[in-house]
Specification:
This protein is mainly α. The chain has one domain (about 55-260): MetI-like (MetI-like fold), CATH 1.10.3720.10. The protein contains 11 helices and no strands. It is globular and about 70 Å long. This is ABC transporter permease.
Length: about 260
């Protein structure tokens, strides 16, 4: 099972993953039950679950969840809609790459956190500021990932289109894009994780609602059970969206499984 060429069935894969989470949960429970760490620094699983239950009953948990999911969905969608055509363009044409890629590289190395006070000045503390932070944090990375995905399309495929005297737009739409799309989808899945990170950063600094805002509020009152609960919730949300995109990848590109 642990050899380089070994395969793991879907059920066994899930069982191994669940086992890892169970072991970590037991270690957490054991450390807190033995009193090695005080609850202020590491609350027990029971304390965290109880706190999440209280927040769910009060309606705060659902409100925070809805707000954050709305922000991440729209912010990531805006970033992707801009990144896809630009990434495809600079990945296909060398001249456009020379014009755009150095600028994208220049901006993407600027720390996103440094833009938080600027975005507050530009747009205030509303949802537009959260969308802008998500955009800055993901767009430039997405552009370069999509560019590399397009560049990975075998040159022979493009030469075949030229041999068939296909126009440029048909080569792009019928050869380059379908060939690169599986890798582009994976790049989108990876960048979605960054989007979650930057959303929480924006909500930690300037927000009146959302998961990050609740963590900040809990920090002021030393409510570590709330902080741990929301961190676990963010992990569950991230894992769920990641697995959903993996599932969609398998459904959209079934032919890749046949090729393997």
């Amino acid at each position: 099972m642990f050899s380089l060429t070994a395969t793991v069935s879907g059920r066994r894969f899930i069982a191994i993953a669940i086992l890892v989470f169970l072991v970590l949960g037991l270690l957490w429970w054991g450390v807190t039950e033995t009193g090695l760490v005080t609850p202020l620094f590491l609350p027990s699983p029971a304390m965290v679950m109880l706190r999440l239950q209280e927040l769910a009953v009060s309606g705060k948990l659902l409100d925070d969840l809805i707000v954050s999911v709305y922000r991440i969905s729209l912010g990531f969608l805006i970033s992707t809609l801009f990144a896809l055509p630009i990434g495809i363009l600079i990945g296909s044409y060398r001249a456009w790459e020379a014009a755009i890629e150095p600028l994208v590289d220049f901006i993407r190395y600027m720390p996103v956190v440094a833009f938080v006070p600027l975005t507050i000045l530009w747009t205030g503390t509303g949802d537009a500021q959260k969308f802008l932070i998500i955009f800055i944090g993901t767009f430039f990375q997405q552009v370069l990932l999509v560019m590399d995905n397009v560049k990975s399309v075998p040159r022979d495929f493009i030469n075949l289109g030229r041999t068939l005297q296909m126009p440029e737009w048909r080569i792009l739409s019928r050869i380059i894009l379908p060939s690169a799309m599986p890798a582009i989808w994976d790049s989108m899945r990876i960048s979605l994780g960054w989007a979650w990170t930057w959303l929480v950063v924006a909500e930690l600094v300037a927000a009146t609602s959302g998961l990050g805002y609740r963590i900040t509020t809990a920090q002021r009152f030393f409510q570590t059970d709330t902080i741990f609960g929301y961190l676990l919730l963010l992990g569950v949300l991230g894992l769920a969206t990641d697995q959903a995109m993996k599932w969609a990848h398998r459904r959209l590109f079934r032919y890749l499984r046949v090729q393997r």
